[in-house]
Amino acid sequence: MKPNKAILIDVFNRTITETIVNGLGDLQKAVGGYIETATRDEKNGKEVDVFVDEEGLFKYNHFFEYRGAHQPFAGNGIVVGANAAGETIDCPMTINEVKAKVRFLSRIDVLNQPE
Fold first, then answer.
1. Largest Cα–Cα distance of the chain, in whole Å?
2. With pLDDT > 70 as the criterion, what percentage of the chain qualifies?
3. Which of the residues 4, 71, 93, 99 has an alpha carbon 20 to 30 A from that of 19?
4. In terms of Cα–Cα distance, which of 9, 22, 28 is closest to 76?
5. 80, 6 in Cβ contact below 8 A?
C-alpha cells in the first residue's frame, strides 16, 4: 500500500488537519484503536470513508458530528478515500470541505440532543 492523503478530525484539540496514512496501523493510531467505518460520503462520484475507534463510546468523552451521518461519534476520526475494491486511496475532499461538515461536541452536548 502506498501512503495516502487523509484528514484527521482531532476531538481533543478540536482541530482538523491534513495527514498521511500508510496502512491499517496508521489508521488505527489516528483514531486510537481498532477502526470501524462510521459513515460514508462521496465527492464527485468518489467514495469517502470516515473511520473511528470501534470502542470510542467506552473510552472517550469528546465527540464530533459529521453532517449527514446517523449519530455523533466518540473520539478522533480519520477521513480517507476508497476505490471500488474498498482499498484506501487519497481523500478526494479538501480540508475546508471536511471542516464544513464537522462540529465538535462535548458529552453534555450529545446527551442533550433531541432524539
1. 43
2. 98
3. 71
4. 9
5. yes
Q: What is the DSSP string of 70-92?
A: SS-EES-EEEEEE-TTS-EE---
The HSE-up count of residue 1 (CA atoms within 13 Å, CB side) is: 18
Amino acid identity at 95:
I
What pTM value is reported for the model? 0.92
Residues whose CB falls within 8 Å of the CB of residue 66, separated by 6 or more in sequence, listed in order? 9, 38, 39, 41, 50, 73, 77, 101, 102
Rg (CA), the chain: 13
Task: Return left, alpha or beta for 79; rule: phi > 0 is left, psi -120 to 50 is alpha, else beta.
Answer: beta
Summarised one tens digit per residue, pLDDT across range 73-91 is: 999 999 999 988 888 999 9
Query: For residues 70 and 92, what is the distance between their CA atoms, to the nearest angstrom?
Result: 22
